[in-house]
Amino acid sequence: MMEAKEACGVFGVYAPGRDVAHLTFDGLYALQHRGQESAGMAVSDGENLTVMKDMGLVTTVFDERKLSGLGGHLAIGHTRYSTAGSSSWSNAQPVYRSVGQAGFGLAHNGNLTNTAELAERAGMLPGLVASDSDLVADLLGAAHTRPDDHVGELEAALCAVLPEIEGAFSFVLLDTDRIIGVRDPNGFRPLCLGRLDPVAGTGIPEGWVLASESPALDVVGATFVRELEPGELVVIDADGVRSERPFPEARIDPRLCIFEFVYFARPDTRLYGVEVHGARRRMGELLADQAPVDADMVMGVPDSGVPAAEGYARSSGIPYGQGLVKNRYIGRTFIAPTQTERANGVRRKLNPLRENIAGKRLVVVDDSIVRGTTTRAMVRMLREAGAAQVHLRISSPPFRWPCFYGIDTPDQDELLAAVKSIDEIVAFLGVDSLEYLTLDHLVTAIGAPGAGFCSACLTGEYPVRVELQTRSGATAVLAGASTTAGG
Ligand code: 5GP
Ligand code: SF4
Ligand code: MG
To answer: How far is the CA of 349 from the centre of ligand 3 (A)?
Structure first.
């Protein structure tokens, strides 16, 4: 019933002597593109843990007054993506629970694939589990562990619970004394570590930062140290950074979401050591080689299609130009229940540059088509503005399969490329021609040799088994290979 949504953003900071609430605010603001539904943070001063969260953008939820009331030396934060149906305060994060004597906060980016099984094993009624993040927090709270002094209850609980859970999860947690970062054994969602230098002459020691994407390190003045490895857990406290491997070795299989490169991540983010913008530009270059066309101007659909358009123009020699202006105050997502409202949504977001377009044969580059509604309205807008031809070039393969790893995609029967042939899509969108970048070219363009990716939404090959809740309430399992999902 809705277009695909971006993943959540998570952030954590351990920095004695610094204003961690403001640092978390800045970090979350840099991750706002990963979710606009709700924002929150949990701050600890070593004794008290305070959680503040609400619906809305980071700038809506927090202001100077609220931030100055959040004193401490460690914090975590979360921005949540929007969903039309389940948008409510209770879904805002961080989630707060306690394990033993210790309170903790949890922020989650991703989606678990064995929630019903986990709930059943824990003796919970699946219908009563509010969200997979709540479930993990409940399991951690209920874990029977005997931590030694060094490890602490939260880490002991994590080491007991993490091996049980399946799917996509980048977690950032905190208790009163430490922050902890976890990446699932496939590393579906990104998570990186950064360092804050000691401040000379002030006694402020070094600090540490965890973030979904590296620009959130840049904005708080941290230097990028490294990405967490799939299956890695890091504990950050007064003793520095310590790394653990709580998952069985056999489960480690790097599968970063390839859509982070195509669409989700910021262009200035580095993943697998590659700057995303360059990868997108190369996608456009390979698209030009793969699918050339005679045209007068190459344009990108703002913002996500622009880097690939730059690459297409560079490689084809066709001049690059702007054909659409985007209202920069409109967020990434626009959800509206009806077709008319959605078309209005496009008009609200994009407006054509008529003089630049009129009479021209256009190559229009975008990163992806999900249900096709936005694209169709955008093409109509270009035609009305006088475009002579519209050749659509998409810098990823057809999106045919739902994602179960943290991206909220529509059911398969609403994915344009799942229900229509290429010819039918051309007719539906009203374009003169349409080409999608091949998966081989996409991987080549990213340029991280040997790196592992999930591309299940493009291939139907799901790297981690998926437990599907059927409409009757029964549980079916969709295993690795190409299987018809949906339902
Ligand atoms: P459609 O034509 O399928 O309605 O929309 C295609 C547009 O949606 C593309 O410009 C693409 O950048 C964007 N898009 C792709 N994936 C996502 C997503 O997960 N969330 C949002 N908000 N937009 C997406
Ligand atoms: Fe990313 Fe697609 Fe895999 Fe989901 S199915 S994790 S969107 S590559
Ligand atoms: Mg777009």
So the answer is: 11
Q: In what order do the strands lie in the sheet with 49-55?
A: 49-55, 38-44, 74-80, 9-14, 207-211, 192-196, 223-227
Asked whether 33 lines ligand 1 (CB < 6 A), one says no
Question: What's the 128 CA to ligand 2 centre distance in angstroms?
Answer: 27
Fold held by 8-254: Glutamine Phosphoribosylpyrophosphate, subunit 1, domain 1 (3.60.20)
- Secondary structure class of 476 (helix, strand, coil): strand
User: In this structure, which ligand is nearest to the CA of 368?
Assistant: 1
257 included as an active-site residue: no
pTM (two decimals): 0.93
Closest to 114 (Cα-Cα) out of 487, 475, 481:
475
Binding-site residues, ligand 2, Cβ < 6 A: 188, 257-259, 403, 405, 407, 454-457
Q: Name which of 41-50, 190-199, 327-336 the model is least confident about.
A: 327-336
Beta bridge mates, 181: 172, 234
**Contact indicator for 293, 318 with CB cutoff of 8 Å:** no
Distance, in Å, from the CA atom of 372 to the CA atom of 419, rounded to the nearest integer, reads 11
Summarised one tens digit per residue, pLDDT across range 189-229 is: 999 999 999 999 999 999 999 999 999 999 999 999 999 99
d(Cα 115, Cα 269) in Å, to the nearest integer?
31
C-alpha dihedral over 237, 42, 257, 346, to 10 degrees? -150
420 pLDDT higher than 90: yes
Burial of 205 (0-12, 13-18, 19+ CB in 10 A): middle
User: What is the dotted CATH code of the domain comprising 278-451+459-478?
Assistant: 3.40.50.2020
Q: What token pair was written down for 164?
A: 């049980």
